[in-house]
């Protein structure tokens, strides 16, 4: 098999970067069920997952690097298959589609990059390492916080997203943050900065 030239390798990386940009235009579909228009994109969700992942990794005293990469690339396949809400997932083998899309996406990348992303993807799926558990907690916690924010902005049905998910949080840090988040008004941080605050 012919080895790729440097230009071809860089071209594959550039295509990968461009494809990742699609996530800025893919809406998280679950919120549409509630009638939320212009809801967050997959990229919006992924960004805050990474932030939460970093903070949880620090609080849990584990490898920040691995958690950041797991959270950053967790939803990459949605650039190709979009984000399917739970009702739609009843009719598709989503896990198989996600795997196929992910493998095709990373297959064109240089060997070292491809290997690292594949290893981390497998580790995340197996949910055995502390890093994979924290990365999953970051994903769940981000969804919970987003649902809380939507409920605070008048989408009362968003509380339904907050009923079952908390039981899947495994780390003490994520559980503690959710316990706090559900009992406060999440916009207080900026209201307290306002010069017009009462």
Structural key phrases:
mainly alpha, Hypothetical protein af1432, 0% strand
Q: How would you characterize the largest beta sheet?
A: none
How far apart lie the N and C ends? 70 Å
Helix coverage percent of residues? 55-70%
Tally of distinct domains: 1
| CATH architecture designation | Orthogonal Bundle
Describe the protein in words:
The protein is mainly α and 198 residues long. It has one domain (6-182): Orthogonal Bundle (Hypothetical protein af1432). It has helices spanning 6-21, 42-60, 64-73, 78-81, 86-89, 94-107, 111-126, 130-152, 172-182, 188-191. The longest helix has 23 residues, at 130-152. 28% of the residues are buried.
Reconstruct the topology from this structure.
Elements: H1 6-21, H2 42-60, H3 64-73, H4 78-81, H5 86-89, H6 94-107, H7 111-126, H8 130-152, H9 172-182, H10 188-191
What's this model, at a glance?
The chain has 198 residues and is mainly α. The chain has helices at residues 6-21, 42-60, 64-73, 78-81, 86-89, 94-107, 111-126, 130-152, 172-182, 188-191. The chain is globular, with a radius of gyration of 18 Å.
């Amino acid at each position: 098999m012919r080895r790729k030239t440097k230009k071809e390798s860089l071209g594959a990386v550039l295509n990968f970067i461009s494809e990742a940009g699609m996530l800025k235009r893919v809406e998280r579909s679950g919120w549409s069920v509630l009638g939320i228009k212009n809801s967050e994109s997959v990229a919006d969700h992924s960004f805050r997952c990474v932030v939460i992942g970093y903070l949880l990794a620090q609080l849990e005293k584990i490898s920040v690097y691995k958690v950041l990469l797991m959270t950053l690339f967790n939803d990459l396949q949605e650039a190709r298959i979009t984000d399917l809400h739970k009702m739609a997932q009843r009719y598709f083998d989503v896990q198989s589609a996600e795997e196929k899309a992910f493998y095709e996406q990373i297959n064109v990348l240089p060997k070292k990059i491809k290997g690292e992303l594949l290893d981390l993807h497998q580790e995340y799926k197996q949910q055995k390492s502390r890093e994979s558990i924290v990365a999953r907690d970051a994903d769940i916690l981000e969804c919970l916080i987003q649902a809380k924010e939507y409920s605070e902005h008048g989408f009362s049905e968003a509380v339904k997203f907050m009923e079952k998910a908390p039981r899947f949080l495994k780390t003490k840090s994520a559980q503690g943050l959710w316990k706090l988040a559900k009992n406060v008004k999440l916009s207080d941080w900026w209201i307290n900065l306002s010069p017009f605050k009462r």
